[in-house]
Design brief:
Layout: H1 4-9, H2 12-18, E1 40-41, H3 71-74, H4 80-96, E2 101-102, H5 126-141, E3 146-147, E4 165-167, H6 170-186, E5 192-194, E6 199-200, E7 203-204, H7 209-219, E8 225-227, H8 236-241, H9 254-264, H10 270-291, H11 300-314, E9 316-320, E10 332-336, H12 338-341, H13 361-364, E11 371-376, H14 387-398, E12 402-408, H15 427-439, E13 443-448, E14 463-466, H16 474-483, E15 496-497, E16 515-517, H17 526-531, E17 536-538, E18 549-557, E19 560-567, E20 573-582, E21 594-603, E22 608-614, E23 621-624, E24 629-632, E25 635-644, E26 647-656, H18 671-675, H19 683-690, H20 718-737, H21 742-749, H22 752-757, H23 765-775, H24 779-806
Parallel strand pairs: 1-2, 2-3, 4-6, 4-16, 5-8, 10-11, 10-12, 12-13, 13-14
Antiparallel strand pairs: 6-7, 9-14, 15-17, 18-19, 19-22, 20-21, 20-25, 23-24, 25-26
The structure holds beta-D-glucopyranose (BGC).
Beta-D-glucopyranose binds next to loops.
Length: 812
């Protein structure tokens, strides 16, 4: 152990308490031994350090910090250098605000377009997500701050996120849901990682030996700290046994008492406890050492400028008919849309940042020299069309050469704690678009949305520029592209299906029962559309430029590819060269192609450059469930290079040796997985893929401490059902008003056990058991436990505090 001497001096009570949070954001300080605390803060695209009372949902004001574009946005840049620069700026701001652990980036896989937190995640592709995450991590950690990639793992749904069991086969787990984290840990060098709320194959992520020990610690040789998501600890002892180091946020002393008792009764060994303490001590001491050289201030203007550059390099030009863009100097434009006045530039929840300043298209457009025929909000955020605003918008549109229409997803659609129920943008925005095109068909749509949407209305727009959620400087970033000052170079990091019904997990997402069955397996996003030839609106990797690029001279050898890229247009610009790999007629089924490398290259008009993309350990591997290892299938691989998954420009074959002749599957049992037509996988076929029966996920009998408050419709107690009804009514009201109430959403999805983990010691697990008994209809017995437990908890807290302050707890 690195800190054996210090550990020898710690009492059992000190060790136990050290492994949980003292406040919403801080770890325990043990001043007697000079062990300082560290401060954690969200979030992935800006620092959310709360000045006053902390809450993890962003309800209370936080200190101003630069609001960078969200991860879903910057992933579209496909630019690791940019990711690193943003990471550095985030790390710097964290350091200035005296934050030691930055709770991000988020890199869960965008399994379904409907996940409410997709705006916080990079991609549907693990390779791209992992590379971008690693670049952020390198940047953040270069500033003496730990990054904490999250949520490990298989957390791709918000509905009942704390009480959901992801059921998936080992190969899908490894290839799709873990590869990004593997890259983040091995290449990014992450020093912390946050476990997810959910179970993975029946075991909570935070106590999952397979995830935390076998894979994270042993295979990836992770030597940092594991932190629970806020309220995400189920059984703290099992967590410690799996070497999860820090239970957040505020379980009070109840958790610590459980640890003490477990050591005393031998169910937890002192070695297990010390190992966890040692990891955390190492982090706390290292971070405090780095804190000595912490930055005093950051330059707001420079970070704003970086936020602008990040937004403009990430925006994706989806359509540009008749070369309407860039706009001509001096033309007359109408600026329409509520988003032009009140931008949508980030999502809601724990990631919400208070920006240092905020641009709007309404104000920023004054600097671009176009004439304005009018600016109108045109529509309201929610509800039906507003006739007055609509008329104002149509009048302005009729008088303009070009209409700039700012629209997209509303606030309610991109919220932590709630998934979308469809992929459409609000109907009143579409109605206005359809009305405008009747008076002026030169419409340039400027979209704001952090996830993919249906676009049946795309024919109404001559051009579509997708800014995603572009941060505090997003307005001028979009205008730079419209004016031609910046040549767009973003490429989609996710597919845009034509209809929601076309998506691979359509029938499986979100789970309505306890289990979320990942029946689509490997076929997430383009891996499905491409293999099954399902037409999409815009494919993965797609994006237009104001110039054009040609691909020639592809050379492939055992180490990688080289290809000559030429900018054949008359403007400077950047191309994202994408390398995909496939194995036709594979013995082990696999998607048609998979992204295995990429490079963004900037070329002056007329310039050519040879681009090299090396192969790596992920290029040919697949997870073999029979040998239980990464293997390579022998065969003639297709090495493809192109401008999107559907725009392959050049391809060559490469013979590759195999590593085993033990193949894992019987094709007769996995017929549909072999074709990629996976939307209706039968139970037997899913079981063949899983290698075991599908676990029963139905609710039956009484509710348990791990069931969520929103499951109280099953409650036997009429009081509990009444509370459920009140919460549900309030939730529906909020939805109708278009204003997400994060607190309510959190309460709605919280499992009973988490009440004890987030109340700073006021509620013990014993009391929670009492609450659950009340819910199950045993009112008096339950209340007895709650009331009795309350006083017992108070007494036990006092006694523990006394032992802590005296430093004279049990040594063993
Ligand atoms: C979120 C995490 C976040 C934490 C602290 C949780 O609800 O899932 O992403 O870091 O809260 O705010």
């Amino acid at each position: 152990m690195k800190n054996q001497e210090l550990i020898n001096k710690m009492t059992l009570e000190e060790k136990a308490v050290f492994l949980s949070g003292r406040s919403e954001w801080e770890t325990w300080e043990i001043s007697r031994l000079g062990i300082p605390s560290v401060f954690c803060s969200d979030g992935p695209h800006g620092i959310r350090k709360q000045a006053g009372a902390g809450d993890h949902l962003g309800l209370n004001e936080s200190l101003p910090a630069t609001c960078f574009p969200t991860a879903a946005t910057i992933a579209n840049s496909w630019d690791e250098e940019l990711g690193k620069e943003v990471g550095e700026a985030l790390g710097k701001e964290a350091s200035v605000l005296d934050v030691q652990v930055l709770l991000g980036p988020g890199l869960n896989i965008k399994r379904s377009p409907l996940c409410g937190r997709n705006f916080e995640y990079f991609s549907e592709d693990p390779y791209l997500a992992g590379k971008m995450a690693a670049s952020y991590i390198r940047g953040i950690q270069s500033q003496g701050v730990y990054a904490c990639p999250k949520h490990f793992a298989v957390n791709s749904q918000e509905l009942r996120r704390m009480a959901m069991n992801a059921v998936l086969d080992e190969r899908t787990l490894r290839e799709i849901y873990l590869t990004g984290f593997e890259i983040a840990v091995k290449e990014g060098g992450a020093k912390a990682i946050m476990t997810s709320y959910n179970q993975v194959n029946g075991v909570y992520a935070n106590e999952n030996q397979h995830l935390l020990q076998d894979i994270l610690r042993k295979e990836w040789v992770f030597d940092g700290i594991v932190i629970t998501d806020w309220g995400g600890s189920n059984d703290h002892i099992k967590g410690v046994q799996a070497r999860s180091n820090l239970e957040m946020p505020t379980p009070g002393l109840d958790s610590a008492r459980q640890i003490v008792a477990a050591v005393q009764d031998g169910s937890l060994t002192m070695e297990e406890l010390d190992t966890c303490v040692d990891d955390l001590l190492d982090a706390v001491l290292t971070l405090n050492e780095k804190r000595r050289s912490k930055a005093e201030k950051f330059q707001e203007e420079r970070h704003h400028e970086l936020a602008r550059r990040a937004a403009s390099e990430s925006a994706v030009l989806l359509k540009n008919s008749d070369h309407i863009l860039p706009l001509k100097a001096g033309c007359t434009v109408a600026v329409i849309g509520d988003f032009a006045v009140e931008p949508r530039y980030q999502g809601a929840g724990s990631s919400m940042v208070k920006p240092t300043s905020l641009e709007t298209v309404e104000k920023a457009i004054q600097n671009y020299g176009w004439k304005l025929s009018g600016i109108s909000r045109g529509y309201k955020r929610t509800g039906d069309a507003d006739e007055v605003l609509k008329k104002e918008a149509l009048d302005a549109a009729a008088k303009a050469d070009v209409v700039l229409y700012c629209f997209g997803l509303d606030e309610m659609s991109e919220v932590e704690g709630m998934d979308r129920s469809h992929m459409r943008i609000p109907q009143n925005q579409i109605e206005l678009l359809q009305a405008m095109v009747q008076v002026n068909d030169k419409i340039v749509g400027i979209l704001s949305a952090g996830a993919s949407i249906e676009m049946p209305w795309h024919t109404c727009c001559k051009a579509i520029l997708h800014g995603y959620l572009s941060g505090q400087a997003g307005a001028s970033a979009m205008l730079e592209i419209l004016s031609g000052k910046v040549n767009p170079s973003g490429r989609l990091a996710e597919s845009y299906p034509v209809r929601y019904e076309d998506t691979p997990a359509f029938r499986y997402f979100p789970s309505t029962e306890r289990n979320s069955e990942y029946r689509e397996g490997l076929y997430v996003g383009y891996r499905y559309y491409d293999t099954s030839s399902v037409r999409v609106q815009y494919p993965f990797g797609f994006g237009l430029s104001y110039t054009e690029f040609t691909y020639t001279d592809l050379q492939v050898d055992k180490d990688g590819i080289r290809v000559l890229i030429t900018n054949t247009g008359d403007r400077d610009g950047a191309e994202v060269v994408q390398m995909y790999v496939g194995l036709p007629n594979a013995i082990v089924f696999r998607p048609e192609k998979e992204l295995k490398g990429f490079r963004k290259v900037f070329l002056k008009a007329g310039e050519s450059r040879e681009v090299r993309i090396p192969f790596d350990d992920k290029t040919f591997r697949y997870w073999n469930v029979r040998t239980n290892r990464w293997e390579v299938e022998m065969g003639t691989y297709q090495i493809m290079v192109g401008a999107s998954v559907s725009d392959i420009r050049l391809a060559k074959e490469l013979e590759v040796d195999g590593t085993t002749s033990e193949y894992p599957y019987n094709p007769a049992e996995l017929q549909y997985y072999y074709t990629g037509i996976i939307q209706q996988i039968s139970d037997p076929e899913f079981e063949a893929l899983l290698g075991h029966p599908i676990p029963d996920g139905k609710w039956s009998g009484e509710l348990g401490i791990n069931d969520a408050v929103c499951q109280m419709y099953y409650a036997k107690s009429s009081l509990a059902r009444f509370i459920y009804k009140i919460l549900t009514d309030r939730k529906l009201k909020n939805e109708a008003a278009g204003k997400p109430d994060l607190n309510l959403l959190f309460q709605y999805n919280i499992p009973f056990r988490a009440i004890a983990k987030m109340t700073g010691g006021m509620v013990s697990m014993h009391m929670v058991n009492g609450v659950v008994e009340v819910v199950n209809g045993h009112f008096f017995r339950g209340m007895g436990k709650v009331i009795g437990g309350f006083f017992a908890n108070l007494r036990a807290n006092r006694a523990y505090e006394k032992r802590l302050s005296s430093g004279k707890g049990a040594k063993k």
